[in-house]
Amino acid sequence: MAIQKGEKIPNITLATMAQGKPEAVETARLLAGKKVVLFSLPGAFTPTCSARHLPGFIQNADAFREKGVDLIICTAVNDAFVMDAWGKTQGAGEKVMMLADGNGDFADALGLAFDARGFGMGRRGMRFSMVINDLPEKPVWTVEFETIPFIGSMEEIHLEKKHLDGENSNFDTLLYHLNPKYQKKETYKLSVWY
Predict the structure, then answer these.
(1) Pairing with 63, which of 5, 115, 130, 176 sits 20 to 30 Å away (CA)?
(2) Can you give the pTM of this predicted structure?
């Protein structure tokens, strides 16, 4: 079952690149005392993720910071080398932290993993986004808001074209959550789930 609003984020070890080599990052330490926007994409360098989803968070990083967000994190079930290279090609820099969920342990722990072997992509994390709040007025590392547009098996989604809009997990939805007066800029439909 997928993580729900108000539930604690599990402490899982992810990876980032530091000084040319992978470095372990524990979610408990990374999230402590912060308001974090975390989004996950099915894979680095995939068409929709590269053309629409990641760039929206990078381009709007300042708007998130203005709303009290301390850190923006992008995860995908890829290794740290791939996530680092993808972040560099996209200009993520200091705006979006690229974290590798190499074995899919984080996606599994959140209940948001899926089997994409039918597409030759192995096990992946779903496209989702959430606001995680560990500020004093909130319980430790809890999900404040989440959107999970992919529901059901990938076969159902692929064949029935359910929940392919990507609109629920994009930057606009989270900015609206952080400020209901925010006027959404972006609406788009995904032609493929990746």
Answers:
(1) 5
(2) 0.79
